[in-house]
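From the thread on structure requests for the teaching lab: each student submitted one protein with a one-line request. Submission from student K.M.:

"Model Cation:proton antiporter regulatory subunit from Halomarina ordinaria, tokens only."
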Amino acid sequence: MKVFETQLPGVGRRYQISFPDGGVFTIVVHNDGKRSAFWRDEPDADGEELFTTNERDAEKIAEIFEGVFFDPVSDDLDDALSGARIKWVAIPDDSPVVGRTIGDVGIRTQTGVSVLAVERGGQTIANPTPDTQLLTDDVLVVVGDDDAHQALEELLSKPK
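Reply posted by the TA:
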């Protein structure tokens, strides 16, 4: 695999990844933070735009490729995790939990979900403590059943 980087004046940077078995994957990082992804089967062929995304979503895609969110489990745990779902939930600007800590809010006792991580400004706080303060634009990575997720949504959106 070869990676080529090219400055695109007035646009941003282009990264082209050529694979030994054929195909070229291109990512254009625009000056405004937008990312565009293209694929072409042959080096000289026209590229097909696969998607365009913002900076935050591009970071999420990169984390997935990096394996941050993947933890293989054996099949014998399927019954133990039955009904459990992991979700990424953004804290609304007007949420009553903004400025309070996880412990003060009582997220687990109030809703039944467990907070696995807090994503904040491109950083991930893994295994946050009850003293972790919740801020606007934080994204909570939580695990629980459907009822617990619904209770969390209600807690986050209650009027102040």
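TA comment: The mean pLDDT is 85. The helical segments are 55-66, 102-105, 107-111, 146-157.
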